[in-house]
Amino acid sequence: MIVEANRAGGMTHELLKSYHDSGFVTLRNVFSPAEMNLIQRECDRLLHQDPSLITPMNLRCRFMPHHQSGEALFEVLDPVNDLSTLLHQVCFDSRIMSTVEAIYQEPAELFKEKLIFKMEGAKGYDLHQDTPQNWPGWPLTFLTVLLAIDGSSRENGCTEVYRGYHDKFLSADPDQYMLRNDCVCTSRREFLELEPGDIAIFHGLTPHGSAPNTTNGMRRAFYISYNARSDGGDRRQAHYAAFQEMLRTRMATESIETPFFR
What we know:
Blueprint: H1 13-22, E1 24-27, H2 33-48, E2 61-65, E3 72-77, H3 85-91, H4 94-104, E4 108-118, E5 143-148, E6 159-162, E7 189-191, E8 199-203, E9 208-210, E10 219-228, H5 236-252
Antiparallel strand pairs: 1-8, 2-3, 3-4, 4-10, 5-8, 5-10, 6-7, 6-9
């Protein structure tokens, strides 16, 4: 069962227990319709203001194939805070920070952020856990706050999480990031069907995935990830340096073009 709270409710004992028992929790109406209108307009600006920004060779961009045709569809800006003062502010909004710090019982540090534009027809993500086993220095306290920018539903490929698997790695192979479907029981699946302004929080080991977007519109969401301050402090800059170096190395074997970051 997904436990809900409104803006005034805060992170109650019931919500904390739900998170620690299930590995995820949702809070409804955290951001107001007026605030979400500003965020939606900012997403439109980022998507359309500079077409030269959105290219497969830009290290901050990723693409997802269409679930039928295989056409490459733009999907992710990662990172995005250096492009948007508004989204940077969202990451440090007191409503989010107080909720995350209630989970940690200590201060939180921003680890990474990504803005997802799940285009019409875009394929979903196969089952996986976010915390890798073999990435040196990756925080074990890693968790993600999902802010729904558009409504998320089963039809447009909302995130699907599985209850109660957040206490361990599910792959026996430390080099294997994706999971076999038989690692989880479908009876534990929850669909994070959210309205704009709702947030969901899930542990880095909570198995999750998503189905294709079969609607006629985008499904935008802001994924903001944190770690506890005692778990390595501020790691964001080090993470992106290592992440982009990994991408450069991989892309050098796949293309004659030179990757860049802008």
